[in-house]
Amino acid sequence: MKKIIAFVAVFAPALVSAQAITDVNTLTYKLTNIGNTIIEILIAFAVLYIIFNVVRYIMAAEDPEKRKTIGGAVLWGVVGLFVILSIWGLVNILSNTFRTNTNAPTQNFPQLNYPPQVP
Predict the structure, then answer these.
(1) Cis geometry, peptide bond prior to residue 115 (ω within 30 degrees of 0)
(2) Which domain holds residue 56?
(3) Residue 37 pLDDT more than 80?
(4) What angle separates helix 2-15 from helix 24-59, to the nearest 10 degrees?
(5) Which end of the chain is more exposed for a tag (fewer CB within 10 A), N or C?
């Protein structure tokens, strides 16, 4: 239960926004941001997994059976990283193909007049 509360506390600010979804562009903007955050976290975990298993592979220099098992884990980590990056690339290709606007809509943001106008 504590893990669920911690998960909600960490990811709630990213999912909740004061800006309403008014059209397809704002929806794609929000979904792209959420997807990019998830992909970046997955890439970080995949790289850490690969590095961890490479260190284990080097430390298991005397045991060939253990090296074979850990070598397979390194291979699957690289395959997983490739799949993650491929999906991310495919999403970017589709986003550019259909010309969806992934920039923040500026009309909803308060504008600051600088330098101040003196009457």
Answers:
(1) yes
(2) 22-101
(3) yes
(4) 130
(5) C
Q: How many domains does the chain have?
A: 1
Q: Report the pLDDT averaged over residues 34-57.
A: 91
pTM over 0.85: no
Residue 81 counted as domain residue: yes
Neighbour-count burial of 70, counting CB atoms closer than 10 A to its CB (0-12 exposed, 13-18 middle, 19+ buried): buried
Give percent of the chain with pLDDT exceeding 90: 32
DSSP state of 111: P
In a domain, 46, yes or no: yes
Per-residue pLDDT, 98: 75
Residue 13 lies in a domain: no
Query: Does a structural domain hold residue 8?
Result: no
End-to-end CA distance of the chain: 59
Give the count of beta carbons closer than 10 Å to the beta carbon of residue 35: 15
